[in-house]
Specification:
alpha+beta; Ubiquitin-like (UB roll); Aldehyde Oxidoreductase, domain 4; 4 domains; 7-stranded mixed β-sheet; 5-stranded mixed β-sheet; 25 helices; 32 strands
Length: 900
């Protein structure tokens, strides 16, 4: 019987391949709203309707769609009108990167009234890493109100922002376009050993596998060493990585690459590659790696970076203290878990020019790296990026692009390399684990007399981002503290563990867990309110931290810090304790807080560039460097441009992440969209506005000062000149109307961006389970330009912080193989895990304070605030993350002769 299925109202007769799942079949048919996040039925990004019911299409055999009706998110809208769920998601701004949105929309559209009353349970099959879920919950509930109303099409402004495209599933992500003709697929052979030297590789059987075009090994790779970290200053990271190496330094390192007609053929050939290893001793503990005689990870030794700073006299400060606390705190290895996996497509055009379409936060730096490693010139390579399905720093690395381009140069064919979820969890990068020993002294009035910190950061097998993370952790994380005597010793250390890398917070969260826990212990010892101690221990407005981050300006406190502390006290003190009916009487109740800060000054050398130009129709193009990946920076830049050009956001058309459009841009990370990005847009748009006014004045004979730009028209007295006419005249008169805004950080004050969090928790003594009863966040956001976007950023960071603190953990066997290989074993927060969060913005009283970064800072106080609440509830100081229920229970069990 001939295969027949109806997809979004269209018949499809193409039979699926044997064993093919419905997800890959639908994408093969061009329905790219069906996303891949896991391939194990855990994330829900691939949800579609089969005969009206939701299914995870990655688990649904495609052949079972025979004779059935399949609806994807693209088919949910009817007659150009958004489905009520799509309209509700649009109204609520219920997404950030948007990669999970089609799956949530499809799940929500099929919910029954009974399921709607139990949303945490009903949505447990859908994961979101960006939003923290509350806006999604709001949208789903609001969709029922909209069911009875006509929703209508998206407005022009909504279309311009691409939000409507996201909820309709047509906003393209990296692999959401038809594959180039003749495209090959890459799969990788990975090391089973932590430390080994390859003595022989036999690829003959793999080469003979049907469909295989090439098998690449270290003998085919350039000898050039580089860092996978994408940062403006290449000198910030050790050049210690090869595309393919003959020395393995961690389990999961790339050994060989197979290029074949299909992923299945490439995987079959990978199993036929025979590798002979000389297995070598390994070092996995960073403290041991620093010891004399330790096994060397690299020939130059295990110390990737050293930092030493002393201010004042530590011993004197300790002698002046009424209380001293000393303890070592340890953080763990966690993964970004962006729902879109790393992926690259690369090909050559007929002129031999390389095109690389990839999941990168920094297209220009990716091009620079590829040229340096493969001996190419910049004009020979174009790097582009679509919208990214989350990043969190994990896509500030060169992880797939280098091997893809090497395969193109070897085969002459287009290629694609897409990581699996298992590869994401076991072979990309992670947050740096820290071992931090804190010695802190304070007086009875809360004055901090001494702060001594020794931090050992495990940068793993390679040094990407290691020096910079250590630098930021030791400077910015300690920048809050008003102390005359500070000593910092920092070590970024190589081990035979999977490489660490850039991750939201960039080391501040790890350091804050240690130091804010230590301050809490001092408060307990001195019988002080923990907030009172902090009010004495932090900088005053106008004071500058004695710790500077290398060549960066020293962080300076402004009124945002005092506003945060004042607001936190007001909100905390008015919260009522939970009623007995709301909490099990056996539970232990506690509260805790933490305050953290980051500099608003971007990393040294960061370049942001924006081009604004007038279009023939009188609208504007705004060309920017980085892609959109969930920060909603493109919306912020669009609204900034619209304000500067006195027009509506719908007239601003963003084009981004294409190295052919701008000569250079460092990329999107370190929350630069809210700071450097807006400055660059303002510069470009003001220049363009001045050009338009001058041209209009020249045309009309009016004084340029008397001309006014509004909407699509320049008003010069009684004359109205449409911008389309100005564009036509300029085109005939010598060139387009355009302007470039370029911003680089300048020396000067670097105000702190402050975030504070307060929790009230309940701990069940029989299980160790921790329940969050109250959650309050106070953010010093500067000028809030888009409150909905800021809310989403903060909620998402808090959710990620809760998961990191309480259960997320990359577990490994003694031999180094990571055992958390899917989203069922590496569990990220679900809707049911996230409490209601009371959010407060501290807004500036002066108009000259612009926006402050919010993408990273709200993550940082979560771990110490929860740890401090747990200390208050149990009387036990937990010094190691994560704060798993079994660890809490074991500690409580040992203390049953005390409080319990």
């Amino acid at each position: 019987m001939a295969f027949l299925t109806r997809i979004n109202g269209r018949e499809s007769h193409e039979p699926p391949a044997p064993g093919q799942c419905l997800r890959t079949y639908l994408r093969q048919q061009g329905w790219f709203g069906v996303k891949k996040g896991c391939d194990t039925g855990d994330c829900g990004a691939c949800t579609v309707h089969v005969d009206g019911g939701p299914v995870h299409s990655c688990l649904y055999p495609a052949h079972r769609a025979h004779g059935r009706t399949v609806t994807t998110v693209e088919g949910l809208a009817t007659d150009g009108r958004l489905h009520p769920v799509q309209r509700a998601f649009l109204n609520a701004h219920a997404f950030q990167c948007g990669y999970c949105t089609p799956g949530f929309v499809m799940t929500a559209a099929a919910l029954t009234p009974t399921q709607l009353r139990a949303l945490p349970e009903s949505l447990k099959g859908n994961l979101c890493r960006c939003t923290g879920y509350r806006v999604i919950e709001e949208a789903v509930r609001d969709s029922q109100r909209l069911q009875a109303a006509a929703t209508g099409p998206a407005s022009r402004d909504e279309d311009a922002s691409t939000d409507a495209a996201v909820v309709c599933g047509i906003a393209p992500f990296t692999l959401d376009t038809p594959a180039p003709t003749g495209m090959l697929h890459i799969r990788l052979v990975r090391s089973p050993h932590r430390h080994a030297r390859i003595t022989a590789i036999d690829t003959e059987a793999a080469q003979a596998t049907p469909g295989v075009h090439a098998v690449l090994t270290h003998q085919d790779a350039p000898a050039v060493r580089f860092s996978t970290a994408l940062q403006e200053r290449t000198s910030d990271n050790p050049a210690d990585t090869r595309i393919l190496d003959d020395v393995m330094r961690h389990v999961g390192q790339r050994v060989a690459a197979v290029v074949a007609d299909s992923p299945a053929a490439a995987e079959a050939a990978c199993r036929r590659v025979r590798v002979t290893y000389d297995v070598l001793p390994a070092v996995t503990d960073p403290d041991q790696a620093l010891q004399p005689g330790a096994v060397r990870v690299h020939p130059g030794g295990n110390l990737a970076h050293r930092l030493h700073t002393v201010v004042g006299d530590i011993e004197l400060g300790l002698s002046q203290a009424d209380a001293v606390h000393t303890r070592t705190y340890k953080t763990h290895r966690v993964q970004h878990t962006a729902l879109e996996c790393h992926a690259t497509r690369a090909w050559q055009d007929e002129d031999g020019r390389l095109h690389v379409h990839t999941t990168t936060q920094a297209p220009h730096l990716t091009r620079r790296h590829l040229c340096a490693v493969l001996g190419l010139r910049p004009h020979q390579v174009q790097v582009t990026a679509a919208r990214l399905g989350g990043a969190f720093g994990g896509k500030q690395e060169l992880l797939t692009e280098d091997i893809a381009v090497l395969a193109v140069l070897r085969t002459g064919r287009p290629v694609q390399l897409e990581y699996t979820r298992t590869e994401e969890l076991t072979a990309t990068t992670t947050r740096h684990p820290f071992h931090v020993t804190v010695t802190a002294g304070a007086r009875y009035d809360g004055t901090l007399t001494a702060l001594k910190v020794r931090v050992v950061a495990d940068t793993g097998a390679y040094g990407n981002h290691g020096p910079a993370v250590l630098q930021v952790a030791c400077a910015e994380a300690l920048s809050l503290y008003r102390c005359a005597n500070i000593a910092v010793d920092g070590y970024s250390v190589h081990t035979h563990n999977v490489p660490s890398g850039a991750f939201r917070g960039y080391g501040i969260g790890q350091m804050a867990f240690a130091v804010e826990s230590a301050l809490d212990e001092l408060a307990h010892t001195l019988a002080l309110d923990p907030l009172t101690l902090r009010e004495h221990a932090y900088l005053r407005p106008g004071e500058t931290s004695p710790l500077a981050d290398g060549d960066q300006p020293a962080p300076t406190a402004d009124t945002g810090l005092t506003d945060v502390l004042r607001t936190l006290r007001t909100v905390r003190d008015r919260r009522q304790p939970p009623s007995g009916a709301a909490v099990d009487a056996r539970c232990l109740i506690g509260q805790g807080l933490a305050v953290t800060a980051q500099s608003t000054h971007p990393s040294d050398g960061h370049i942001t560039q924006v081009l604004a130009q007038l279009r023939p129709d009188g609208d504007y193009d705004l060309i920017t460097g980085p892609p959109e990946f969930g920060t909603r920076a493109t919306d912020l830049l669009r609204h900034t441009a619209a304000t500067a050009l006195a027009t509506g956001p719908g007239r601003i058309h963003i084009r981004c992440a294409d190295t052919d459009l701008l000569d250079h841009d460092t990329g999107g990370f370190a929350s630069t969209g809210a700071t450097l990005g807006t400055q660059a847009v303002q510069r470009a748009c003001r220049q363009l506005r001045d050009q338009l006014l001058a041209l209009a004045a020249d045309r009309t004979g009016a004084d340029a000062a008397a001309c006014r730009l509004e909407g699509g028209v320049v008003h010069c007295g009684d004359r109205r000149l449409p911008l389309s006419e100005l564009h036509a005249g300029a085109r005939h008169g010598g060139g387009p109307l355009r302007a470039i805004g370029r911003v680089e950080p300048c020396p000067g004050p670097s105000p702190l961006a402050v975030n504070a969090h307060w929790f009230r928790i309940a701990v069940h003594p029989e299980t160790g389970a921790l329940t969050i009863l109250d959650s309050v966040h106070v953010a010093d956001a500067g000028t809030v330009l888009n409150e909905a976007s800021c809310n989403g950023q903060i909620h998402g960071a808090i959710a990620q912080g809760i998961g990191t603190t309480l259960w997320e953990n990359l577990s490994a066997e003694p031999g180094g193989r990571i055992t958390t290989q899917d989203l069922r074993s590496y569990t990220i927060p679900q809707l049911a895990d996230i409490p209601d969060i009371e959010l407060h913005f501290c807004r500036p009283t002066t108009p000259d304070r612009g926006p402050k970064p919010l993408g990273e800072g709200p993550f940082n106080p979560i771990a110490p605030a929860l740890a401090n609440a747990l200390r208050d509830a149990t009387g036990i100081r937990f010094t190691t993350l994560p704060l798993r229920a079994d660890m809490v229970w074991a500690a409580l069990h040992q203390h049953r002769g005390g409080r319990l």
